[in-house]
């Protein structure tokens, strides 16, 4: 059976639009940090399911997810109501293109996220294997309001000489109001942390967020000589197109 019934262990609201929750981990469920899996709720015998990136690293004992709340969304409007002890159904086959195997090892890993596109990067930041493969990791998380900066305290506490976190807020006064894509394309990100100028030979980029940002970054990188990872081979940047299914 492709789906197993798992228990909700905890729920945490971040803003009026975002929340995270943890589930029990199915037995024999293996995944790579950065992957996503389809989860859902059963209503009147029918399973309503969507793809969600896993916030937990691959070796975690629980599965954690970050979601937006769409008031009339067929799944998120229901997920927003779950409480510890409730059931969520989890597919047995995770997948995704934001894993360490989807980019070549390199000098700096840049992770550009908007909204709940942060989820797979939380998994990677929490995984020591990321820092075994890269000298530095830079995570930029762009949201509309400050309350949507999920996991901010944890990310700030992880900052050191090798991990760099940049929160940006676009619709409220905030020290960094620029979108992450703008910061990356302008070269400001590398400068801020004293890193070498971004270079497709040495650096790698992962992108997860709204489709407009993903297209903008993909076009920019391709024009600058970067190669996207696809069925033909491993490149120096990768995106998660399945992210669009996080929104209903």
List the helices and strands and how they pair.
Layout: E1 3-13, E2 18-24, E3 36-43, E4 46-53, E5 62-68, H1 76-79, E6 87-91, E7 106-114, H2 119-125, H3 128-133, E8 134-143, H4 152-158, E9 163-169, H5 180-186, H6 188-192, E10 204-208, H7 211-223, E11 237-239
Parallel strand pairs: 7-8, 7-10, 8-9, 10-11
Antiparallel strand pairs: 1-2, 1-6, 2-5, 3-4, 3-6
User: What is the topology, as strand order, of the major beta sheet?
Assistant: 4-3-6-1-2-5
**Helicity level:** 10-25%
Q: Termini, distance in Å?
A: 24 Å
Just give the CATH class of the largest domain. Answer: Alpha Beta
Task: Tell the overall outline.
Answer: globular
Number-wise, the strands total 11
Please outline what is shown here:
This protein has 248 residues and is an alpha/beta fold.
Written description of the protein model:
It is a single chain. With 248 residues, this protein is α/β, with parallel strands linked by helices. It has 2 domains: 3-91, Beta Barrel (Elongation Factor Tu (Ef-tu), domain 3), CATH 2.40.30.10; 100-240, 3-Layer(aba) Sandwich (Rossmann fold), CATH 3.40.50.80. The protein has helices at 76-79, 119-125, 128-133, 152-158, 180-186, 188-192, 211-223, and strands at 3-13, 18-24, 36-43, 46-53, 62-68, 87-91, 106-114, 134-143, 163-169, 204-208, 237-239. The strands form 2 sheets. A 6-stranded antiparallel sheet has the order 4-3-6-1-2-5. Helix 7 (211-223) links the parallel strand 10 and strand 11 (237-239). The chain is globular and about 55 Å long. The two termini are 24 Å apart. The model has no long low-confidence stretch (mean pLDDT 95).
């Amino acid at each position: 059976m492709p789906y197993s019934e798992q228990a909700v262990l905890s729920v945490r609201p971040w803003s009026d639009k975002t929340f995270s929750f943890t589930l029990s981990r199915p037995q024999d469920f293996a995944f790579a940090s950065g992957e996503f899996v389809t989860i859902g709720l059963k209503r009147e015998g029918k399973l309503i399911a969507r793809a969600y990136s896993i916030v937990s690293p691959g070796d975690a004992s629980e599965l954690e997810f970050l979601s937006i709340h769409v008031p009339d969304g067929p799944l998120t409007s229901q997920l927003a109501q779950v409480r510890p002890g409730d059931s969520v159904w989890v597919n047995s086959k995770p997948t995704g293109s934001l894993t360490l195997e989807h980019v070549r090892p390199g000098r700096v890993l840049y992770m550009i996220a908007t909204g709940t596109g942060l989820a797979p990067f939380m998994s990677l930041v929490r995984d020591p294997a990321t820092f075994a493969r890269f000298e530095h990791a830079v995570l930029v998380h762009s949201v509309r309001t400050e309350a949507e900066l999920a996991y901010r305290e944890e990310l700030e506490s992880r900052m050191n000489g090798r991990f760099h976190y940049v929160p940006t807020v676009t619709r409220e006064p905030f020290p960094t109001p620029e979108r992450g894509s703008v910061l990356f394309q302008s070269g400001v990100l590398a400068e801020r942390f004293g890193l070498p100028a971004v270079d497709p030979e040495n650096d790698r980029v992962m992108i997860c967020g709204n489709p407009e940002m993903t297209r903008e970054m993909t076009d920019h990188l391709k024009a600058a000589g970067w190669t996207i990872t696809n069925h033909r081979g491993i490149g120096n940047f990768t995106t998660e197109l399945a992210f669009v299914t996080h929104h209903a």
